[in-house]
């Protein structure tokens, strides 16, 4: 896969938040405590009860510290250290040590990595794990490191994304005429086109109100997000389209090269455990939530979505529309599909 050069304007993507400047620890020495232990910051955007936090970030902290290799981790969740663009820039500058980021957001610094968030590019969470363990996956991560100077500790799926609306969405034709909220990143907007949706950009924080007021007709998110935002109060139908995995990468600044080999091994092992735990937690949370919804009257859950029609249309569109390194990543992922 063609190597790309580092982006010299990376740090101009966003102003580093003030909190990040104090998050590196004591004494301005990158977080080394007086007893010789190394303190690392771990930032993310999730609430404490979401799988990425309780089964991901919290487990990484617990396992790293239990390894007793002189590493401590301080967690800053719920976007305390800034939004996605802010935190990516802070990781690149070394003001945040570890961050949990969506692949599409990381496309701002290396576009091909955003293909991990492409519609139907992965068959399921197992396919993601297979790809990440493959030579093809290693090549994608190596290219990302070369381009952005950011180390990747691991990746997990935080669940598939599904549509909600005030009418069922069973086929691509059912999206016609609907204003569907998608995140504003280039990859999400390309996904909307691939799926046949009329994308409307709305900030996540404004999603509930926009649905309530009719500014948009529908939206798409993982089950855990749909539940946490109480969208059943403002939508009638949940259509299980599973059109995209919510792929998170656990990324690390150049501090990776400053910690010892023993500490690197402890970090890697902790993230591997968290990848498994998040996958299990997401599956358990989704099963429990769907069981509750099916037995109640908050939603009508639509199970008979024509996933094959959506997937065929999306993959054909992406294959025709992507170019250069992004197309190579797309083809590499699909080559590992069973």
UniProtKB/TrEMBL annotation:
Family: Belongs to the bacterial solute-binding protein 7 family.
Protein name: Tripartite ATP-independent transporter DctP family solute receptor
Any GO BP annotation: transmembrane transport
Species this protein is from: Nesterenkonia xinjiangensis
Keywords for the protein's UniProt record, in alphabetical order: Receptor, Signal, Transport
Residues in the signal sequence: 1-20
GO CC, alphabetical: outer membrane-bounded periplasmic space
Pfam families for the chain: DctP
InterPro entries: DctP_fam, TRAP_DctP, TRAP_DctP_sf
Annotated TM spans: none
């Amino acid at each position: 896969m063609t190597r790309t050069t580092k982006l010299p304007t990376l740090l101009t993507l966003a102003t580093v938040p003030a909190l990040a400047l104090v998050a590196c620890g004591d004494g301005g020495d990158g977080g080394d405590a007086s007893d010789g232990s190394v303190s690392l910051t771990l930032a993310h955007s999730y609430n404490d009860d979401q799988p990425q936090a309780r089964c991901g970030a919290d487990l990484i902290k617990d396992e790293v510290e239990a390894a007793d290799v002189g590493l401590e981790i301080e967690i800053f969740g719920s976007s305390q250290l800034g939004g996605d663009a802010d935190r990516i820039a802070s990781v690149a500058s070394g003001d945040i040590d570890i961050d949990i980021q969506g692949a599409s957001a990381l496309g701002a610094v290396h576009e091909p990595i955003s293909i991990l968030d492409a519609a139907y590019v992965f068959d399921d969470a197992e396919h993601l794990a297979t790809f990440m363990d493959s030579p093809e996956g290693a090549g994608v991560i190596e290219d990302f490191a070369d381009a952005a100077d950011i180390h990747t500790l691991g990746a997990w799926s935080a669940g598939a994304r599904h549509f909600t609306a005030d009418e069922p969405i069973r086929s691509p034709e059912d999206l016609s005429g609907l204003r569907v909220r998608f995140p504003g990143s280039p990859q999400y907007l390309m996904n909307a086109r691939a799926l046949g949706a009329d994308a409307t950009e709305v900030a996540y924080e404004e999603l509930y109100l926009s649905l309530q007021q009719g500014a948009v007709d529908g939206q798409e998110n993982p089950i855990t997000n749909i539940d946490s935002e109480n969208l059943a109060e403002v939508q009638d139908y949940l259509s299980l389209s599973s059109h995209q995995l919510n792929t998170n990468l656990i990324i690390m600044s150049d501090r990776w090269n400053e910690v010892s080999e023993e500490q690197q091994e402890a970090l890697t092992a902790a993230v591997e455990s968290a990848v498994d735990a998040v996958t299990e937690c997401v599956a358990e949370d989704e099963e429990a939530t769907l069981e509750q919804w099916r037995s109640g009257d908050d939603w009508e859950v639509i199970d008979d979505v024509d996933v094959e029609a959506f997937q065929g249309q999306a993959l054909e569109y992406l294959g025709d529309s992507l170019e250069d390194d992004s197309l190579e990543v797309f083809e590499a992922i699909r080559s590992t599909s069973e």
